């Protein structure tokens, strides 16, 4: 799998985000987010145009920002919460991403730190250790 290219400018590392179509400062969390985007596109064959990255969402009284939202059949399908590699996937991380389900009708919730992936299949009510398949886009 091809990983994102890193560019150095003014002493900072930048990576090109193909979804946002601009260079982004490369933080540890951004590295995980870009790796997830590359994986979803190259391995799961999800077009960049069906991904949304770092957009604001109103959850109750709070304004939050999700990491990656994937659409299928014109509806939100899967949300991915990315954490830097050193961060544990704790209950607090899970609660953060679960809060998005009050606003979005999703099929999958994913949390990852780049090494560990936890995916919850909402319809079946069980956890998986990998991203779901995206086949059947127009079914």
Task: Provide the fold topology.
Layout: E1 6-9, E2 12-17, E3 22-25, H1 28-42, E4 51-53, E5 56-59, E6 62-65, E7 68-72, E8 75-82, H2 91-98, E9 108-112, E10 117-121, E11 126-128
Give an account of the 3D structure.
This protein has 139 residues and is α+β, with helices and mostly antiparallel strands. The protein has one domain (12-128): tt1808, chain A (Alpha-Beta Complex), CATH 3.90.1570. 17% of the residues lie in helices and 37% in strands. It has 2 helices and 11 strands, in the order βββαβββββαβββ. The chain has helices at residues 28-42, 91-98, and strands at residues 6-9, 12-17, 22-25, 51-53, 56-59, 62-65, 68-72, 75-82, 108-112, 117-121, 126-128. The strands form 3 sheets. A 6-stranded mixed beta sheet has the order 4-7-8-9-10-11. The chain has a 3-stranded antiparallel beta sheet with strand order 1-2-3, covered by helices on one side. A hairpin with a 4-residue loop joins strand 9 (108-112) and strand 10. The longest helix has 15 residues, at 28-42.
